[in-house]
Every structure is written in C-alpha cells, then in structure tokens.
Design goal:
The chain has 136 residues and is an alpha+beta fold. The chain is built from 4 helices and 7 strands; from the N terminus they run αβαββαβαβββ. This is Endonuclease-reverse transcriptase.
Length: 136
C-alpha cells in the first residue's frame, strides 16, 4: 500500500512539473494594477525582445511576483539567458512545484553556509557544486 502511494505521488509530481515546464516566475518588475494583457506588454517591453507569452498573472502583491507562461520551453530558456537581466533587480526563475521549491531552499541554505566558509559554490536544479565536487 505504501509503495503504491509513493508511486502515485511521484506520478502527480511529474505531471505537475510537466504542466509548469513553459512557466517562469518573474520577481521585481513593477507593473502596477492591471490585467493579464498589461502584464504581458510590460514583460515584453522590459525584455526588449520579441517573446511569445501565452499568459501571465500576478501572484504576490508586495514583491511584484508574476507567473509568466511562454509559448514553448525554448522561449523560456532564451528569456532566462537574457543579457539585459544581469545587473538588474529583476529575477526570473523556473516555476517549481512545492516539493521542488523546498529542495531548492535547502540547497540555497547549504550554498550560503559553504560560501561563508570561503568555498567556491555553484547551484543548479536539485544539485550543488562545492569546490568542484557535485552533490545531488
């Protein structure tokens, strides 16, 4: 019974990740009060690129947090690699599931500890590299 529940949870998590594949969470861009179309226009203008956005919605009031759904994964990847984000206070991250967010928070905490010890640290999705050694 317990094994079956674990399989179902795993399958649900996989389906949730698939649903979020083309989505990203954008933080820090002030858009004001407006609907989906205004969010799409402001995001497109900020990125200074021709981007195909399927939908967008605000998810947090105080920190200017939005979920943006792109037409496909390639669009999202191109935006996340965008050069005009460097040095700005705007952040774009993958739209993670609740489980994925918890894992990334733990990785970030561990990375901070290691950086404070003076070690070279790189973070990725569900992995951490400290002084060239990989941890998953």
């Amino acid at each position: 019974m317990g094994k079956r529940v674990g399989e179902v949870e795993s399958q649900l998590d996989r389906m949730e990740r698939e649903k979020r594949r083309n989505k990203a969470v954008m933080m820090g861009l002030e858009i004001g009060t407006g609907g989906q179309q205004q969010i799409i226009e402001k995001v497109t203008k900020f990125l200074e690129e021709k981007v195909k956005i399927k939908s967008a919605c605000k998810i947090a009031e105080k920190v200017y947090e939005y979920v943006v759904e792109f037409e496909n994964k390639e669009e999202k990847i191109n935006v996340m690699k965008s050069k005009n984000l460097k040095g700005s206070s705007i952040y774009i991250n993958d739209d993670l599931t609740k489980t994925g967010r918890k894992i990334q928070i733990k990785i970030k905490e561990e990375a901070t500890k290691e950086r404070n010890k003076g070690k070279m640290v790189r973070m990725g999705y569900k992995k951490l590299t400290v002084d060239g050694r990989n941890f998953e």
